[in-house]
C-alpha cells in the first residue's frame, strides 16, 4: 500500500493506493493538522471511496495507524507542516510528481521529464493536456482530422500547451511560440576569389564580385568554365544567376557565341534586362525578347533593345520559341541559360519549355546549357535526362524561420498588417529595413490587402501596366515600400529582396499550390546581402477550400506543404501537347523526319507519337523522308495551338460567322475540358486518400516476430506438449476437452409446408436489413475449431473475435493473437476491451511501451474501464501485474466487497 499526499484547501488530501492492484486508489481522505504540545497532529480526518462525494468522519488515530503500516509515503511537493508531523511520528517520506488534474478525478498519473506537458505554471500529463487542447479547439469549426492529429503531435513534440495554443490565437501572437521549424544557414566556408579564376579580365572588372559563394564554387569545380552542361539546384539567393553570367560572358568574350538567358515571366525578364544592360554595357549590347501587348498604348509599348541581336539576349520562353516556330534563324549561340527549369512540371507551359530546350540543342549543338532552379525533386534523375552534370547545394545562405498560424479570414488582414509593420521597423546588420511579400490568390484581394495596410504597401500583379509594375519594383528596391501584395502566379520568380513572406492564401486561383511552387515563393524570404534572417508566415483558415472539387482544406494543405517533399520532374504529354511540339520541331528541322524524331527523343517528357493523327487529319503530308506541314499545321506551330484545339476552331469557322460566338464556344469547351481534368484529379486524390487509410490500417498489423519470441514460443509448445501427456496419463481413456471435436448439432425445425417455409425466409430477409444477427459465443470443441474457421464464424461478432484472440494468447500463440487483435483494432480503434487484450499480448512479448500505449488508448476510449486504467497506472508506478491471473483476481476482489456490504 502506498500513501500519496498533496495540499488541499486548509489541509491535505491523502490517497491510499493498493500496489497489488496496479496502484489503484482504494480510499481518498482529507486531513487537517493543528499545533499541539507534542507537535503537529491531525485534528480532523474524513474518508470516502473514489468516485463518490460522501465522506465519513474517521478517528484521527486510524490515520496515524494507516500511515505507520501502509508502506511508502510520497509527497507531491514540499509541505513543511506535514513534514514536521511525519518527523514527529518518526516516518520517512519521498517526493513524487503527479498530474494534479488527474488527482481531481481520483486518478494517479506520475510525471517524468519525458512525459509531462507544461500548462501555464504547472505540469500535467499528456491525456489532460490533450483534453484541454480539444476544448480550446472547440471554437474552430470544420477543423480537419489530419490537422487535429498534427496539433496533437505538436503538443507531444513541444511539450508546451501554451506554445501550441499560440498557433490558434493570433490575437495574442508570439512568434517564438508559433514557429513550425527553422532552416539553419550554412557555415561560411572559404571560397575562391574571382580574380584567381580563368575568367577574362574585362569581365572580372565589370562583374562586381570579389569572392564566390559556395554554390558558385561547386559549379566552377564541376567544369562551369570549361563548357560543361550543368543542372544547378540551390536555394534562392545562393548566386545561381551569376553562375550563368560567368559562363555566358566568358564564352562571348572568347568568341564562342552569344548568351541566351531565358526566364518564365516578363517581369523577371525586364529585371534581368535592366541589370545586364547596366552591368555589362561596356562589354556588349543586351537585347530583350518578350511578348508585346495587343493594345498599342504609350504605357504598354515595348521598351529597350528588342530582338535577338545583342551579345546577351534576355527573353521569356515563349519569346524565344516564337522565333523558332516562325522559322527565323537564331545563330551564333554559345551559352543557353534556362532559369526556373522546374517549370517543366507546369501543366500548361511545361511541354513548350521541354520542346524549346530540345530545339535549341538542335540549332546550337555546341552551346553550353545551364539549367537553374531552387526547387526540384530528385534532381539527379532530371540531370540524367538533360544530359548534364548535377550541382546541388541545399544549404541556405540565410537562416529561415517558418511559422504556421490558424486564423479566421476576417482576422488575416489585421494580422498581416501587424506583421508587416513589425518587420519594417527592424533594420538588419547590413543597414536594410525589413520588407514583406504577401502572396494571395486573386488580383482583387491584392488591392484589398494593400489598401488595408496603407500607403507603404502596393499591389503587384499582371493586371497592372508595365510602367506601374516597374514603379513598384523601384520603390521596393529603394526601401520605400514596407510590403508588396502579389499573386502567386506572377511573383514566384520576380526578384524582390524581402526579409519576410506571408501567405494570405495557399491557392493559385482555385488550385492549391504544389510543393515546388510553395518552396519557390517561400525562398524569397531572406537575402544574404540584405538580411540576417528570413521569416515565412503561413496563415491558414480552418475548413476553407477554394474549389468544390477537392476534399482538402487550407489548414491541411498548409501542413502538407510545410512537410511535403518535392516530386521528380517526369512530365507525361497527351496528344494535344505532343502534336503542338511535333509541328514546332518540323519547322525547325525543315521537315526532315529523322531530325524531328531525334528532337522528340531528346525531350524530358514522354507521350504518344502524333504523326498518325496528323496525317489522318491532313495537317502533315509525307513525301519520302520529308514531312511538310499544311497551312493549318503551320498555324498550329506558330500560334502555340494543339491539334484538337485547331480542329475545334476549324469546325467552328465553317459553321459560325461571328468571331465572338466562336470565342464563347471555345471558352465553354475549355470549361468542360477543365471540369473533366478536375474529375480525373479528384479520382487520383481519392485513390491517394484510400492508400493513406490503408497504410494506417496496415501499421496496426504485426511485423515479423523477433528471434527471441520465436524461441519462447518453441519452448512454450514443448512445455504444453509435456503437460498434455501428463494429463492424458491421469485421464486414462477419457479425452481432453480441447480434443473433443464431435458435438451434436441441433437440426432446424421442419416447416408445415413450402408456403410457410418461403414466408419465414422472406421475413428473415426483411428483418436482416434492420436487425443485426444474434451474437453467439463460440465454444471450444465446436466443429471446425481451427483458427481460420473460428475467425470466419466470428467475423460478424466482435465478442467472438476477442475471445478467439484471448484463447490464442493463453495458448501461447502470441503471433496469431496479435494478428487477430491488430486487424480488429485497425477497424475498431475505440473498442476498449480489444485494446486492453492487445496490450496484454504486447506485455507478454516484452514490448511494455507499446502495451502502455494500448492501455492508455483503452482508458481514453472508455473511462469506466478500470482494468485499462489500473494497468496503465501500474506501468507508470513500476508494478508488474500478472496477465493470466488478472481476471480471477478482479473477481475475487469484487466478491469480497459484496460480502462486506452484506
Structure description:
With 902 residues, the chain is of the alpha/beta class. It contains 34 helices and 29 strands. The strands form 7 sheets. The chain has a 7-stranded mixed beta sheet. A 7-stranded mixed beta sheet has the order 10-18-25-22-19-21-20, with helices on both faces. Helix 29 runs antiparallel to helix 30 and helix 32 packs antiparallel against helix 33. The model is unreliable at 293-301, 695-703, 737-752, 770-796 and 885-902 (pLDDT under 50).
Mean pLDDT: 79
What's the end-to-end separation, in Å?
Answer: 25 Å
Number of helices: 34
What multimeric state do the chains show?
single chain
Cα-based radius of gyration, to the nearest Å: 38 Å
Structural class: alpha/beta
Number of strands: 29
- State the major sheet: 7 strands, mixed
What is the helix content?
40-55%
Morphology call: elongated
Which features characterize this protein?
single chain, about 900 residues, alpha/beta, about 15% strand
